[in-house]
Amino acid sequence: MRQRIEVSIQVAMLLIAAIVPARSAAQGAPTVSLADQLTAQYTMVKMGADSSGPAVVEPGTILVIQKGGILGVPFSDMSLVPTKYQDGKIQTPNNVMMKGIGHAFSRLGTSKQQTTRLFQIGEKVYPAKIDVTQAADKVTLNIVACDSCNNTNPPTFYKAEVVFQFAKGSLANMSPPQVMDTIAQVLTIDDSGGGDQQGGGNGQQGNQAQGGPPQNQPPAQPQTIQLGQTTDEVVAALGQPDKIVNLGSKQIYVYKDLKVTFLKGKVSDVQ
Question: In this model, does residue 138 exceed pLDDT 50?
Answer without folding.
Answer: yes
